């Protein structure tokens, strides 16, 4: 009998390209290795689409793509603490907040940014609460068996990585 593999994974099958994407209300920009040397078309897409969005949300180093696009200029934002110094270099005009799990729509902005991946769950739940109400956000968190962090300023990773205080 041959070896059997127990490996499996999901697939993400796009329905549009960057060129054919319909109008959007919300754009969620994930982080990860693809943000280190991104396709310029992705940065251009973010820059071009931002003015028509109701909300722009980034997770982890996705904030680096927003910074490259210039949409974070003169706005408060945060990013992954392990990648802090590399990411903040991408946005010298950004008001980077080192001690923040997430930064939400401050100063009238419609941009929400988060630190790492788990902080990305927290920023999404905070956004859901902002847009749809606390009960819905609570139900989602309970349904996925996630214990929410409700304080956006409580970010222990800033201290772990010895980042300067605000």
Task: Compose a concise summary of this entry.
By secondary structure, this protein is α/β, with parallel strands linked by helices.
Folded structure, characterized:
The protein has helices at 40-49, 62-69, 84-88, 117-132, 134-143, 156-160; strands at residues 26-29, 55-58, 76-77, 95-96, 102-104, 111-114. It is α/β, with parallel strands linked by helices and 166 residues long. Strands 1-2-6-5 form a 4-stranded mixed β-sheet, with helices on both faces. It has a two-stranded parallel sheet with strand order 3-4. α1 (40-49) crosses α2 and α4 runs antiparallel to α5 (134-143). The radius of gyration is 17 Å and the shape is globular.
The biggest beta sheet is recorded as: 4 strands, mixed
Which class best fits the helix and strand makeup? alpha/beta
Helix content bin: 25-40%
Main sheet: which strands, in order across? Answer: 1-2-6-5
**H/E series:** EHEHEHEEEHHH
Number of helix segments? 6
Counted beta strands: 6
The end-to-end span amounts to 61 Å
| Uncertain segments | none
Q: What overall geometry do the principal axes of the alpha carbons give?
A: globular
Backbone CA Rg: 17 Å
Range of strand content: 5-15%
Mean pLDDT: 94
List the helices and strands and how they pair.
Layout: E1 26-29, H1 40-49, E2 55-58, H2 62-69, E3 76-77, H3 84-88, E4 95-96, E5 102-104, E6 111-114, H4 117-132, H5 134-143, H6 156-160
Parallel strand pairs: 1-2, 2-6, 3-4
Antiparallel strand pairs: 5-6
Helix pairs in contact: 1-2, 4-5
